[in-house]
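Help! Submission page says 'invalid entity' but I think these are all valid:
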Amino acid sequence: MKNYKNYLIEDFLLDDSFRKWVQNGCPIEEDFWRNYPIIYPENKEEFSEAIKFVKEWMNRPSLLSHEQALQDIQLILEDINDKNPVPNKTWHRYIGYAAMLTFILGCGSYFFYKNDAEKSIIAQNNPSENQIKVSNSGKKDKFIQLPDGSKVTLFPGSDIAYDANFKHDSIRKVYLSGDAFFDVVRNPDQPFSVHSGNLTTRVLGTSFTVKSGIKDISVIVSTGIVAVSKSNHESEKMILLPNQKAVYNPEIQQLTKAIEQTHQLAEGQEVKQTGSFDEEPVVNIIKDLERAYQISIFYDDSKLKNCRVTLPFKNEPFDQKLDILCRTIQASYIVTDEGIRIESEGCE
Amino acid sequence: MADQDIKIWNAFLGGDKAAFEQLLLRYYRSLFDYGMRFQSNPDQLRDDIHDLLVNLWERREFLKQTDFVKLYLFKALRHQIFNGKRKKEIFVTIDNLNEENTNNHEDFLLGFEKEEINKTQNNQINRTLHKLTKRQQEILYLKFFEDLSNDQIAELMKISKPATANLLYTSLLAFKAYWKAEFSSLFLLFSLFQQKF
């Protein structure tokens, strides 16, 4: 029988179920942990410290820069390609002396290989046979309808490609270079993904914009939910809710989330600012959020109808507002194809 | 994700270079971050990883299939580094004999003067880890960053399951102690810093 009452930080951290609960954000399972601060209020502080720890661990940066990693990988590939492999060890060890020379030589082959690497990644995912390509070399937007009914607005100077068998593929894949706006037909059995440069955007029936420029690639969500990841790292997904944006910098291979500044909320809408949610019924707050972000939020009305709360909403992004709401009324939410579902025991 | 891994691994075993490249792209950084837990010289580590991966490619026909590529690679890396170290035993110095890391307090202070408090927070885990012994660093890394189970850790570090649980516990306590100490001195320095303005 675990001594939950006197749990110290290390006890929390060693508890697999606790760690999983924190790592999954505000999940539906593990009711126990959600209620822990209510059951054991004296131990609230250790509990929050432990959560902080787990989150810090999750966000810990790598000790190796992306550039260095890529360079090292290219050296390995070169090594295995050589017919008479010359050991590369000396270059690493005498790096101080040979730095200049290595840099100049390495630089050239690095860029050369980098392009090859991208090609090889794309070639893997992008068999040329039976592909349909559409280009927009004109000055106006081009409207395309994909075989599944999804609509694409291709901006000038952009191209997209998709498999001839698109409609029946297990994953609906589109390859994009340039900018386009997608309005995807929802089909949970057939995920939709857009590949642009080294970024993969997985969609769950939504509308969003992908801009793949020279300096960076960005995905901006208009409605629905989108999962963005670096191709080859598809388990590390960044979930975007409406008016959120992901920007990928290919040079440093970094993916960051931001709020889309120009269209922060759906036109003409406003979420009430600080202090104006005085003891407001939660259901009203939820309706405000729905309207402001054009996203569906499902909840059990009978459970939440008596909940009232004062929330300090300022300019947090949507998912943080949701988190605040959840934690304040001890609820949790999951993100589904249709929108957000809030689960709660309710308030008495 | 795991079954994608297995597909790529099997393709690599069959000699698919693009699959090998995928493996490198997926695991290189993890290998480095893991390796740094018990090989503190980054250049040496990159050499070791280089040799390991080239070797792996050359021996691919003799390798087994695996359910968990990451664990396999981590085991191989450990083996590579420790075997390498044993060969160099003749040149071992007093520093190498001592598993404990040198005190990094100067680095810490220097870092603080240059960066804002927010940025140092991000690296606090790394800084605190640096103060532990290599074995402590390794086990904490495996548990909390790579999310390995105790069984997997036991297999990887070649220690018994009870020993794993014990090491994990003591490492965590050590980490906690350094974390708290560092946090309060950071706070102190910050308030001193503020007073100057």
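Support: the input was valid. A stray whitespace character was the problem, and the output above is from the cleaned input. DSSP finds ten helices and 19 strands in chain A.
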